[in-house]
Design goal:
Layout (H helix, E strand, L loop, with lengths): L1 H15 L22 H7 L26 E4 L14 E5 L5 E6 L1
Parallel strand pairs: 1-2
Antiparallel strand pairs: 2-3
């Protein structure tokens, strides 16, 4: 008799619990764009924002003022640079005559 009462009580308790809420559907995430793997890809995608400095190409780099705090590396002939790849770094390429020849991302 006690078993039957406990069974009935458990059955009633289970029937009174609210249904489990289903979690809201997650929006389907868009496929992330592939990160650039080479300097050419990074420059083409302008991952570093070098396009904003393209109008400085052809000017003497000593006469150009660049904003402080930007991740800009000046590369002159015979300058030793690290080989690490950073697609968000701007590289200002300067010729032997001091004229800016390019801005690239790597």
């Amino acid at each position: 008799m006690i078993r039957a009462s406990l069974f009935a009580f458990a059955l009633l308790a289970a029937a009174c619990t609210p249904p489990a809420e289903t979690p809201p559907e997650q929006p389907v995430a868009e496929e992330p764009t592939a990160l650039p793997q080479t300097a050419a890809e990074a420059t083409a995608q302008d991952t570093c924002g070098a396009a904003q400095y393209r109008d400085l190409v052809g000017q003497n780099f000593a006469a150009v003022s660049l904003p402080a705090g930007n991740n800009i590396r000046i590369i002159q002939p015979d300058t030793m640079v690290t080989q690490d790849f950073s697609p968000t770094r701007i590289n200002m390429i300067v010729g032997a005559d001091g004229i800016i020849t390019a801005f690239e991302c790597y």
